[in-house]
Amino acid sequence: MRAHGSNRGLSTKLAELSTPRKGRSSQAHDCGSMHGNQTAPRRQGISNQPRPSSRSKVLDLILAVGAKMAPNDCHKLVNANFSVVSTRHEYARYSRQLILPEIGTEGQSALQNSSVSVVGCGATGSTVLNLLARTGVGELTVIDRDFVELTNLQRQVLFDEGDLDLPKALVASEKVRRANSDIVVHDIIKDLNPSNAEDILGRSDLIVDGTDNMETRFLVNDVCTKHEIPWVYCGAVGTHGMVMPIIPRATPCLRCFIPNIPPQGVLQTCDLAGVLNTIPPIIASIATTEAIRILLGKQTTDTKLIIYDVWEQTLQKMNVVKDPSCRCCVESQFEFLDAKKGDKITTLCGRDAVQITPAREATIKLAELAGSLDRIGRVKHNEYTLLFKDPHTDFEMTLFRDGRAIIKGTRDPEAAKSIYARYVAR
Fold first, then answer.
1. Is there a single domain that holds both residue 252 and residue 292?
2. Domain that holds residue 372
3. Which of 40, 202, 301, 419 is deepest in the core (most CB within 10 A)?
C-alpha cells in the first residue's frame, strides 16, 4: 500500500511538470527562458520551434530515477523541491548532479548562489576553475598574474597553442564561459599582493588555492583568517600533491601546519623536481570536491591533510591540529597582509625569472612603448602584454598594462630591477 501511494504521488508530480504554467506558452517554457514570457533570440540557422526530444528530457530523467528506486523510497523524489532549479534548461545541464543525494536540488541552488575565487590559473587552478564552472557555481573570479607559455601546455589542459602570450586569467575565463554561459566569471590579471588582496578576495564565499608559491598562500591565509572566509590549500609537484580544507575558527589554519615559509631549497619546485601531468588534475579534483562540500555545509571540522602520489598510487591522510600559539589564527597577527608596501620583487617558481610589481599601479601605453623599443631590440605586443628581448643581455621582459613585469633569464633581483629601470619609465 505504501509503495502504491508513493508511485501515485510520483505520477502526480510528473503530470504537474509536464503541464505548461498558466499564462506561459509551451513554446516559451520549452525554450528554457529565464525571463518570463521572453523566448530565446533566434540564432542564424537554428529554428525557434520547440524540439520534442528536449520537452521530455527531465521527465525521462525522473522516470528513470524513480524506476531504480526502491518502492519505499519513491516519496523522496515526489517531495523533492524542484522549484529550486528554475528552468528545464537547468534540469538538462545539471541533471547528473540533481539526482546525487550528496547534492540534489537544494544543493544545486546553494552552488548557484555561491561566489568562489580561484587564486592562480596554472595546472591545478585552471582545472579547479573549469570544474567549478561546470558544477554551476554562480560567480567565479580567477586571479592570475601570468601569461600562457609553451612550457605550460604539457599540464595546463585548459590552454592550447592559440593562447600563447595571452594572459591566463583572460583565456581561462573566456573558455569556462563557453562551457557554462549561465554563470558570471570575472578575470583579474594582477599579482595578488598585500595592497590588493582584501579588495579582491574579501567578498568571496570561498577561495581555492591554485598558486605556485608559499608567500601568496600565506597572504591568502591571512585574508581568509581575518575575514573568516573558508579556503582550500592545494598544490602539486613531481608525482604527488596535497590538499587541505581550512575553515577559520573551526579548523587549524595553514600556519598551524606550516608556521613559517621554509628556506629556499627546502621545498620542491616544478623547475627542479618537474611535474607529471596526471597529478595536477587529480589534486584539483580533490580540492574542488572539498570546495563543494564546504559550499554545501557538508565539510567536517576534523581537518586532514590529503596527500596523493599518482606514481605509487598511494593516498595518505594526516591529522592536523590547531597550534594554540599560532600567530595568525590565535594571535591575529597578519604579517603577510600587513607587509610593508613597496615594489615587490618575486623569484618565480618553474622559471628562471623575476617578477617586479611596482608599489603604485600605473597604466602603461603598450603600443607607444613598443614603438620605442622596436628601435632597440625584438618586440611584440597585444592589448594586454608587451614582450621585449634585451639585445645586450639576452634577458626577456614581459610587461603588463599595470606596470608589472616579468624578467626572464635571471634569478637575480638586482639584475631584474636594472632591466626594468632601463626600459620602463618610472
1. yes
2. 344-423
3. 419
| Interior angle at CA 342, CA 336 and CA 347, nearest 5 | 70
Q: What is the pLDDT of residue 341?
A: 63
Q: Which of 233, 235, 230, 234 is nearest to 201 (CA)?
A: 230
Which residues pair with residue 167 across a beta bridge?
A: 147
Please write the tens of the pLDDT for every residue from 350-383.
578 888 887 666 788 888 888 888 888 888 989 8
The model's pTM: 0.70
In sign, the C-alpha dihedral spanning 340, 342, 347, 350 is: positive
Q: Are strands 405-408 and 184-188 parallel, antiparallel or unpaired?
A: unpaired
Grid coordinates representing 254?
595553514
Phi and psi at 232, nearest 5°, equal -125, 115
212 and 268, same domain (yes or no): yes
Q: Give yes or no: residues 313 and 353 share one domain.
A: no
Residue found under cell 608559499: 214
More confident residue, 379 or 187: 187
Rounded CA gap, 417 and 426, in Å? 11
User: Which of the four pLDDT bands, split at 50, 70 and 90, describes residue 340?
Assistant: low
